[in-house]
Amino acid sequence: MAIHLFEDSAMTQQISEGDLSNPDDDTYNGTNGEAKDKELFMANEQTVLASPLASGETSLQLAESRFTDGEVIIIDSEQMRIQSGGGTTTLGVERGYGGTTPAAHADGSPVYSGYDYTGLVIEPVDTAGGDESDWYALALTQTELDMAIPGAPLNLGDKTHDVTISFWRRCIVPAGTAVQNKTDLKLGITGTENPVL
């Protein structure tokens, strides 16, 4: 999946992916039965143009290497298919892919992976040591955490390529638990990845 979880709205602190790498973590004082809330963000793979792109150019410069050959990317409303340079910051692209119109794009324009998602669901997954996934509740807003069922999945619905979804995670460490660090909880993402065409 070309979708990621982040700890910040600027999407610089990536913590987890659909393959459950990079677990979410935090430090807790289990002797006090401490609870912590955290807002998390879900967004498509993305970066920005490192230089302007004229409407006829087929080579573009990215600020970061984020995409692979054969992948479709979107800048403004134009789709492009990567023909070469995947894994680097210099890409050779087919312009006007999917019937879109080639256009000029400014330096700093966002570049997104070309996927929309349907039926996104996120859930706590704990695969290391004991299973403490039921310590975690998920909700769309912080207020809704009070009614969320610990360990239950959260249906996020559909997401277009250029939209960031935020949701909240609450961890409640049972009183008297000797756990001081919880570093192995992961948030699993399921849903259908659909090319934007």
Short synopsis of the structure:
This protein has 197 residues and is mostly beta strands. It has no helices and 16 strands.
How would you explain this protein's 3D organization?
The radius of gyration is 19 Å and the shape is elongated. A 6-stranded antiparallel beta sheet has the order 5-10-7-8-9-6, with no helix packed on it. A 5-stranded antiparallel beta sheet has the order 2-1-4-14-12, with no helix packed on it. Strands 13-11-16 form a 3-stranded antiparallel beta sheet, with no helix packed on it. The model has no long low-confidence stretch (mean pLDDT 88). It contains no helices and 16 strands. The protein has 197 residues and is mainly beta. It has 2 domains: 122 residues, Sandwich (Immunoglobulin-like), CATH 2.60.40; 59 residues, no CATH class. A hairpin with a 5-residue loop joins strand 8 and strand 9.
Our count of helices gives 0
User: What strand order characterises the main sheet?
Assistant: 5-10-7-8-9-6
Shape: elongated
CATH class of the largest domain: Mainly Beta
Q: Biggest β-sheet: count, sense, barrel?
A: 6 strands, antiparallel
Q: How many angstroms does the end-to-end distance come to? A: 17 Å
> Do you know the CATH architecture of the largest domain?
Sandwich
**Main structural class:** mainly beta
The total of beta strands comes to: 16
